[in-house]
Amino acid sequence: MRAWRILVAAAVLLVVPVPAFAHAGDDRLADHLEGSAPDEFHGSGVVVCTWGTDAATATYDVTRRDGMTMTSGPTGEFMATAAQTVMRAGDEWYAVDFADRSPWSLSTRYRLGPPEATMHMGRAADLYVVFDGDLPRVRLVVDRATTVPLVTEVLDGEGRVFRMAALIDLDESDVAMPAAPEPARMHMVVSTDPVASLPESLAGYRRMDTYMAAGGGVQAYYSDGLFSFSVFEAGRGATPEVFRSATAFGASGTWYRRVVTPDRVWVHWNAPDRSYVLVGDLPPDHLIAALEDLPQPGQRALLIRMWRRLFG
After folding, report:
1. pLDDT tens column, 17-27
2. Burial (0-12, 13-18, 19+ Cβ within 10 Å), 79
3. For the whole prediction, is pTM greater than 0.85?
4. pLDDT tens digit string along 117-134?
5. N or C: which end of the chain has fewer CB within 10 A?
6. Where are the domains of the chain?
7. What would the CATH number be for the domain defined by 190-303?
């Protein structure tokens, strides 16, 4: 039950929009990412994620006006401003607020290639490639008139498309924003001290913040400025139902279970005394590298297992 509450918390926390990028990496890329969204537009599209035999797809809608963004898609429905995110769970809306978020910075491993002229949906656009060292990592087709990304492709370490999001409709005139809902309750995410088992950095990602997780345990939030993920740690418990039939995959000689959704990957494993869930939008090779520096899957010692069976 505790592990399931961690999954619920992850679903809430990961819809919070990212703050502005600091110019620690490629200035052109940081400027482009920071200023990519115009003041007003409405669009609808499709997002697809594929890892091995796992694939997931969904449609989404996004509306932006007067500094507010409303999104309806694979993570549900939510409205966001610079200060707060309000999301819907069932028929009620809930406000999610963070205490003391750290500013983001863009990793120096990323650089932006020169644009190439192209067309998409009959619109003049530019194709940009974001390089991770020498590897193409993201391909962006950006509308020239509005600077809205029309197509975004995230590539894995072999150059294959891992995730693709494409707008199929874009309207930048007469944008009507739905009325802001009145949230039924507020969820405050409270920062806490880091724990030794969740390192300061993982595979080029920096631990930005550590929070108290709903239902006990902690959440460590990592970012490299382009992708991000959270690791949730709690006392060892039963594997959540959603992972029991999930795809098993190997990393560093051990086994994990993953669930692929249109916009992120969920990974679960049990270490001897802790349970972990990693949730993020990072590509598979980055994810596997991060797992190598986290506590490894394993069983409790035989004496401990016998003691727990006898005395609970």
Report:
1. 333 333 344 56
2. buried
3. no
4. 999 989 999 999 999 999
5. C
6. 190-303
7. 3.30.200.100
